[in-house]
Write a structure and sequence with these properties.
This protein is mostly beta strands and about 200 residues long. It has helices at about 5-15, 175-180, and strands spanning about 25-30, 35, 40-45, 50-55, 60, 70, 80-85, 90-95, 100-105, 110-115, 120, 125-130, 130-135, 140-145, 150-155, 160-165, 185-190, 195-200. The protein is globular and about 50 Å long. Mean pLDDT is about 85; it is low at about 10-30.
């Protein structure tokens, strides 16, 4: 019969009791944000302050260079894809199902705005389009882009948004032309009220 030294037996007992327990998910803030969350965009307003947006309506803010993060209520459980502030107080977020959120108090609260980013499907009717990118040049002028070549814009701070499909000027044929005729637009940036770029 084999004998185990006392130290070896003690080590086996400790391991059986959980000396290698499974690691718990690590919270980033208030046990509501986890390292397994998916975040899609970030904007830094200064070296200490930044906003991050992501899955399931999550907005988190840091005011100390990322040492701590605070969750901000979005009022939505839809995915948030893009965030853009024009100054310390005013910003927009865009996301799933044509969602646009707007803040005028530095991100403490967010209000929904009507994007009018919709597609009329012959079989299923009207569908809201995902908005993947947003950019603003000032407190009045902002643009958002997304599914099915949609571009929606405001010139009155988001009180009204006007949506339209971006026409593609391509010199392609066959399947290439079909694929290029209705691309997904992922990001937008304007330098003033008339000059801008879109990628997709």
């Amino acid at each position: 019969m084999r004998r185990w030294p006392i130290g070896g037996a003690l080590a086996l007992v400790l391991c059986a009791l959980g000396c290698h327990r499974e690691v718990e998910m690590v919270p980033l803030a208030d046990r509501t944000i986890y390292t397994t969350d998916r975040f899609y965009d970030v904007q830094a307003l200064n070296p200490d302050r930044a906003f991050v947006v992501g899955y399931s309506g999550k907005i988190v803010e840091t005011t100390d260079g990322g040492r701590t993060w605070t969750g901000r209520p979005s009022g939505s459980d839809l995915a948030l894809y893009s965030v853009h502030f024009v100054d310390e107080e005013v910003g927009w977020i865009t996301g799933q199902d044509g969602l646009i959120l707007h803040t005028t108090n530095g991100g403490k609260t967010w209000d929904k705005q009507q994007s009018n980013a919709v597609f009329e499907d012959k079989e299923t009717g009207q569908q809201s389009l995902f908005l993947f990118g947003v950019h603003a040049t000032d407190r009045d002028h902002a643009w958002a882009v997304g599914d099915r070549s949609i571009l929606t814009s405001t010139s009155d701070g988001g009180k009204t948004w006007t949506a339209r499909k971006v026409a593609m000027e391509t010199d392609l044929s066959g399947g290439q032309s079909l694929a290029a005729s209705d691309p997904i637009l992922y990001d937008v940036q304007f330098v003033d009220a008339k000059h801008g770029w879109i990628v997709g």
